[in-house]
Fold this protein.
Amino acid sequence: MPWLRLQPGQVANLELREASARRRTQHWVDGRSVECAGNGCPYCAGGSTPKTVYSLQVTWEGSEYTWEMSEAVWRQFCELLPDAARRIGAVVRLKRIGSGPQTRYDLELVRPVSPAQDTAQNNGKDTQAILVPFTLEDVRKVVHEELLGQDFGQMIELIVLTALENWYADAEKE
């Protein structure tokens, strides 16, 4: 899969194809990256400090790419989308600013994952699945009668219902 390469000033809306990035440690040697061998690495022994990079599969303008990013950009990405389970299908806007060692990237969330996509991904189904519209009262009834039919206590019921109410409130905002 080709690497995502942006020119200075270029902007790309990237749809995320996976939730977790691959992490690797590398050295920059003679204008190219070389995987760090860890213990006994000749580049480390020679004084080269390895850098950690992360990569994700993304879609941009209908084509799939591998997006490799520095640790600083990965941290920025994780702040933007902290819940890994809600990343696949989300769209982020990436803008390259500057060039060479002065390069930096701005990230912005363009489209979060919809509740329908989230539910479909978690169930391993097509991401175009549609949520069945349950009311909060329907959910309360199911939680009370089926999940809490035995005496688990009011505290558990309160926790479950509060979480579901928050989820419904978030879903209605989208």
About this structure: Strands lie at 11-16, 22-29, 32-35, 51-60, 63-70, 91-97, 104-111.
